[in-house]
Every structure is written in C-alpha cells, then in structure tokens.
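In the lab's daily routine, each protein ends up as an entry in a very long ledger. A line of letters takes care of the sequence, but it says nothing directly about the fold. The three-dimensional part falls to structure tokens, numbers that each stand for a local backbone shape. The outcome of that step, for a single protein, is printed below.
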Amino acid sequence: PDGSEIVFYSIRHGTRDVFLISADGRDEVRLTDGPSQDFHPSFSPDGLRIAFSRGSSAQGYAYVMSRDSLGGEWTAPQLLTSNAGPYSTRWSPDGSQIVCENANEIWIVSLQGEERLLFDGDAVGFRGVEYADWSADGRLIYFEASDSTGARMLYAIPVGGGALREVVRFDDPTKNVSPVPYTLGDGKAYFTVKEIESDIYVMDLEMR
C-alpha cells in the first residue's frame, strides 16, 4: 500500500471486525459485520486486497476481500482456505500467495485457493508454531516455535521446503521477550523486550 491507509481489527459491536482508517485518523470504515470473529487482517502489497482470518483464535479460515482501485469499494469477503486453523495471514512480496498457520503447521496458499503444506511442527516435536511471515525477497518464511526442549526460537525455512535455519534463540534469562509478533525490515528482525518490576508501598491504617 501507499501508506495512506491502515487496516486493523477491533471489538466495537460485540465481535471482532475488520476496519480501515486513513493514516491521519479520519475516514474510518467498518469492512466486516457479522456474528463471526474476524482478526489479523493484512494488506496485499498493491493495497487492492485484504486477507484475514474468520472464526476463533483456535479455529478459523482465511478470507480475502478486494477492490479495483485505491479508494474503491470493497467486495464481500471470499473464502480462500479449506483447512481450518489460520491464525494470521501474510502476503508474499509479489502478492500472489499467502502464508498462514494451521494447527501447528505452516501453509502456503495461492489466490486460487491451492494449499501447500510447508512445515509440520508436530512431525519434529515443535510446539506453538506461529507468526509466519515472508522475507523481503520472498525466498524464506520466518516463524516462531518452541523446539522439543522447550526453547523458543525464530526460524527460517525456504518457501520451496528444505532445512530449517535457527535465526534467534530466546535463551537469555535476563531478557523477557514479549509474546507478540516480531517485525522484519532492512535485513533485521525486531522484537519487544520488556522488564517486569513492581513497587512496594507502606501506608498507615487508622483503626476505628
């Protein structure tokens, strides 16, 4: 997209719905309206499509809505995946495919609905496979997972399949990496590291 619009989801009417708003905070539009939970929307690179998950945090399906031009009217959401489970949806750099997670698996889905299993976490003893995203050149898929020892890591795997590469191991006990998605950019991965602290207060009590 050209940066003039932001897509997000929010609970405004009892369920999670997808909204669109201009970057200056004006012209908010509600794009989905129904009894289902809609979450984790993402723009295609050209800004003409939005992919999102519909269902619940445990089970859902990937949907896509589109428009003919920037600022144009959006179509009704169209079901893209047949496998239940997509949690997040991320577009390939060329806008031809989407990567999403499905029950500890990573799937590559074309705009024609062709689904290909890229990685099965259960097969190698991984847990919590999530936050799959593309490298800038479209050659790798990054994702977070815990290995068989319980260690949490950021991995990379070729889009065509192949050996995993460990990118970051979160094994420093002094750094509490917040359980939120990372961000890729400029050949770097950005994470939120937080410190948890508390204060103790003393006050006088007046007995009556």
Summary: Residues 177 and 193 are 4 Å apart (CA to CA). The two ends are 65 Å apart (CA to CA).
